[in-house]
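Researcher: Please translate sequence to structure tokens.
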Amino acid sequence: MAWRCLLALMGLIWVEQSARAENKYDVLAHVLQPYGALFYSKSSIKAMQADVVLQEASGTNGSLAAGSLLHRTLRVSLQMPDRLRIETAGPGDHIIFCRQGQQVWIYPRAVADRVIAAAGPPGPVTAIPDFRLPLRDNQIVLLPALFQISRFQPAKDAENQPAWSIDLHPATELIQSNRPPPWNATVVVRQKDYQIRHLTVDSPEWTGKLQVLSMRFMHALPPELWSPSAAETAGAEQIPPALYSTALARLSTINFEP
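Model: Translation complete:
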């Protein structure tokens, strides 16, 4: 009940803020709309696929990493409620990190071994949680209220198209007053279609910069995407579900070269 009252109050604050300050929260609402639809139970849109370039990454020690995925095009496939695939695209070795429910596999085996070593010993055996929001269907419209915008200004994207640059972090109402935000992000949003073109994330677990080449939303992705192909089966390796979060955070900072 306290959570619902807090969300309602934040929603009122968001409505007030969106009516002033150059409609920055209205812009954020447009940006978040297709992502919110992924979590809406009656929505036909349950999957998304993005092509991105990882421009910079660092792990928990804060130092920039020279990982093998840097400056490569990555295809990120997500399907609700529990499927994720990250793979390299284009020239170079093919690397895949995939979650299907409680099963996690990496291809090739040499990459899996390095990711497992970097992730350290697995913690207690726990189920990997589904991708979800702490919102009911009728609250998803208030998704922008979960964020606080600290900077909003006109900009240009990588193709010199008009854009907005937005700095944001979780709303202070969701954070204990004596703690800093758990993460900060900067998004560059193309004005003509509200598409995210660049994303910078800064958190204790992972910091990185992504150029977004394309973003597609759809009903579902091909079912064969979540299992190794016939050519990949022999070289794929399962990893313990308890390593999933840590392995995912380490993936972009590891050098897989011999």
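Researcher: Any highlights?
Model: Confidence is low (pLDDT under 50) at residues 1-21.
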